[in-house]
């Protein structure tokens, strides 16, 4: 009975050793998809799926730390998710809050809220702000938690802030439009100052962005995995990294 486990551990170790350190991504975006389907297949309440997904997040971040990944962006709750049935949404928000507490207990993480805090329940928005402030000095893995996040909303917010700053500095809209560049808009995104994700992973077999990092992922490599997020294994992650390392990035050319 032990041989399958031994063979699996051997394969995982070989896979890890085959990854060239210089070809690993600096920033990984992850769409943690499939929690509800996992619960349905298990004959369990939806809450159990969300909890299993939350537990996987902590495990996944540990893998990233081991491999020296610098930045991870986790798509945890979209703006559309806030329209779910309250019977599902309220437990989900509680699980997210608990997960934020657990992230705050991790050593040396820097956790940054990425989303429209004004559309979140006040207590969750306040918790996100406190967590961002308390971990701001962290020198380890930088974790963007995309909660209340929408890619279109992010771009709109960036343009609004850019125009407000221009007005405060006495510049007219005409002046702004004459000199506006994509790099200027990038400076107002939620992820400003960070490298764009080189790799975006989506679990559960779905092959679409769903508004995730629409601006930042223009030249990202995408990896779609059939595993539901709670079932996502370290070997699945290593395979994604192997696939990424084997690609020739063309940046639109």
UniProtKB/TrEMBL annotation:
GO molecular function: ditrans,polycis-polyprenyl diphosphate synthase [(2E,6E)-farnesyl diphosphate specific] activity; magnesium ion binding; Z-farnesyl diphosphate synthase activity
One Gene Ontology CC term in the entry: plasma membrane
Enzyme Commission no: 2.5.1.-
Classification via Pfam families: Prenyltransf
GO biological process, one term: polyprenol biosynthetic process
Primary enzyme class: transferase
Positions of substrate binding: 34-38, 50, 78-80, 84, 202, 208-210
Entry keyword annotation includes Metal-binding: yes
Cofactors required: Mg(2+)
Residue ranges the record marks as coiled coil: none
Superkingdom: Bacteria
Cofactor note (record): Binds 2 magnesium ions per subunit.
Family indicated by similarity: Belongs to the UPP synthase family. Z-FPP synthase subfamily.
Subunit structure: Homodimer.
Name of the protein in its database record: Isoprenyl transferase
Originating organism: Arthrobacter saudimassiliensis
């Amino acid at each position: 009975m032990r041989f399958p486990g031994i063979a699996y551990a051997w394969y995982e170790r070989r896979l890890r050793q085959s990854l060239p350190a210089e070809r690993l991504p600096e920033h990984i975006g992850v769409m943690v998809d499939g929690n509800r389907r996992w619960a349905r297949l298990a004959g369990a309440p939806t809450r159990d799926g969300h909890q299993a997904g939350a537990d996987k997040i902590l495990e996944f971040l540990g893998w990233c730390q081991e491999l020296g990944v610098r930045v991870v962006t986790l798509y945890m709750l979209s703006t559309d998710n806030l329209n779910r049935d309250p019977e599902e949404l309220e437990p989900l928000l509680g699980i997210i809050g608990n997960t934020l507490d657990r992230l705050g207990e991790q050593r040396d993480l820097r956790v940054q809220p990425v989303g429209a805090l004004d559309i979140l329940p006040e207590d969750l928005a306040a918790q996100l702000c406190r967590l961002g402030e308390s971990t701001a000095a962290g020198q380890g893995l930088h974790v963007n938690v995309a909660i209340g996040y929408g890619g279109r909303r992010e771009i709109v917010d960036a343009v609004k802030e850019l125009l407000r700053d221009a007005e405060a500095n006495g510049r007219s809209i005409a002046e702004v439009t004459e000199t506006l560049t994509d790099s200027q808009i990038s400076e107002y995104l939620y992820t400003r100052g960070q490298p764009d994700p080189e790799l975006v992973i989506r679990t559960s077999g779905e092959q679409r962005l769903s508004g995730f990092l629409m601006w930042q992922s223009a030249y990202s490599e995408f990896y779609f995995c059939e595993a539901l997020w709670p079932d996502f294994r370290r070997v699945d992650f290593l395979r994604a990294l192997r696939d990424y390392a084997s690609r020739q990035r063309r940046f639109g050319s």
